[in-house]
Design a protein that fits this description.
By secondary structure, the protein is α+β, with helices and mostly antiparallel strands. It has one helix and four strands. About 20% of the residues lie in helices and about 50% in strands. The chain is globular, with a radius of gyration of 11 Å.
């Protein structure tokens, strides 16, 4: 798997910074997801209840 980083992804859900892995079989694994907040980047960690749903929404913009 290859690593990737997207420093700024504009979506209707917000502005994201994304890091993770991908392969050529279109498999994407997001390892770090940050959203732009009013004071800068906010890490969406495991305490973020809607993290999995948010990851799925963001993945649609990566394909």
């Amino acid at each position: 798997m290859k690593t990737f980083t997207i420093n700024r992804l504009n979506t209707p859900y917000g502005i994201f910074k994304i890091s993770g892995f991908y392969d050529y079989n279109e498999s994407i694994k997001i390892t770090k997801l940050e959203i732009m907040g009013t004071d800068g980047w906010v890490l969406c960690n495991e305490n973020f209840d809607a993290k999995q749903e948010l990851i799925l929404m963001v993945k649609n913009f990566l394909a």
